[in-house]
């Protein structure tokens, strides 16, 4: 197993995030991929984990996806156990400046990323949460 954290720029107003999450959850469930998608003002951070071949394939698809640009791999490492085992695709929208600063200034090791997500949104929440419109 392996994990990747990446960040990318995207024009979020052009993306149907509910549909993106629905499709990602189906695909990820079929391929034993778990993780979390974090939206920030100008794009995404994502942590994905699972079988190495599937993670490599998914990351390649993300890099080639025209909805993303400036895709940057922050972290890539083998795993002995899953960190987000209950989520085929968790979702977090960081709209608070403090939250955004925490993730953008973070060292982004898997443990630090998970700890940051847990501080912002406890892992007991399930992935069925839909996007909140404000």
CATH architecture: 2-Layer Sandwich
What is the radius of gyration? Answer: 14 Å
- Major sheet size, sense and barrel closure: 5 strands, mixed
Whole-number average pLDDT? 78
Q: How many domains make up the 3D coordinates?
A: 1
Instruction: Report the structural category.
Output: alpha+beta
Proportion of residues in helical segments = 25-40%
Distance between the termini: 38 Å
CATH topology annotation: Alpha-Beta Plaits
CATH class: Alpha Beta
Q: How many strands in all?
A: 5
* Uncertain regions spanning at least 5 consecutive residues: 122-134
Shape: globular
Query: How are the strands of the largest sheet arranged?
Result: 4-1-3-2-5
Order of helices and strands: EHEEHEEHH
Instruction: Tally the helices.
Output: 4
Description of the molecule:
Strands 4-1-3-2-5 form a five-stranded mixed sheet, with helices on both faces. It has four helices and five strands; from the N terminus they run βαββαββαα. Residues 122-134 have low confidence and may be disordered. The chain is 34% helix and 28% strand. It is globular. The chain has a single domain (2-120), classed as Alpha-Beta Plaits, CATH 3.30.70. It starts with a strand and ends in a 14-residue tail after the last helix. It is of the alpha+beta class and 134 residues long. The protein has helices at 17-30, 52-64, 97-104, 110-120; strands spanning 2-9, 34-40, 43-50, 69-78, 90-93. The relative contact order is 0.23.
């Amino acid at each position: 197993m392996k994990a990747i954290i990446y960040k990318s720029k995207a024009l979020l107003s052009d993306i149907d995030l509910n549909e993106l999450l629905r499709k990602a959850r189906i695909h990820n469930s079929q391929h034993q991929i778990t993780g979390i998608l974090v939206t920030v003002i100008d794009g995404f951070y994502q942590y994905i984990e699972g079988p190495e071949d599937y993670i490599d394939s998914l990351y390649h698809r993300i890099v080639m996806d025209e909805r993303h640009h400036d895709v940057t791999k922050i972290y890539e490492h083998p795993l002995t156990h899953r960190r987000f085992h209950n989520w085929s695709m968790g979702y977090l929208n960081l709209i608070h400046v403090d939250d955004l600063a925490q993730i953008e200034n973070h060292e982004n090791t898997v443990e630090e990323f998970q700890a940051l997500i847990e501080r912002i949104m406890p892992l007991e929440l399930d992935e069925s949460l839909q996007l909140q419109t404000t």
